[in-house]
Amino acid sequence: MAQQDILAKIKRYRRDRGLSQANMAEALHVALKTYQNLEVGITRVDIDRLGQIADVLGVTLHDLLDGRGNANEGSARLMNEEKVLYDKIIMNKEAYIAQLEDSIRFYRQILREETGLSDEKVSSGRT
Hints:
Layout: H1 3-16, H2 21-28, H3 32-40, H4 47-57, H5 61-65, H6 71-115, H7 119-124
C-alpha cells in the first residue's frame, strides 16, 4: 500500500472519530504543524509513529497498512521504502564526507606550497 493510501486512511479514521488535527497532535505529543505535515505527506511517517497513530485512532496497524488481510505485505513494503530512504541518506552523507576530505587535502597542499611546511606539521596544525 502506498504512503498516500495510508495517509488517506488516517485522515478518514480521524474524521470518522470526530478528531481534529489538533486532537491528534496533542495525543501524539507533537506540534500541530508536525502532525499536519505527517498527515499530508510532507514528513514521512515511520512504522513506530504509525503504531502510535493507530493506537490513538483505536485501530490496528494492520487496518492502516492494508485492511484486507495483508498486513505483513503492507508493513514489509513500508519497511522496504524506509530502508531505501535511509540508504540514500547514508550514501549522500558518505559522498559529502568524501568531498570534505578532498577539500582538506586540497587546503593542506596549498599550505605546504605557501609555507613550505612538512606534511606532518600541516596535518597536526603546528608550525
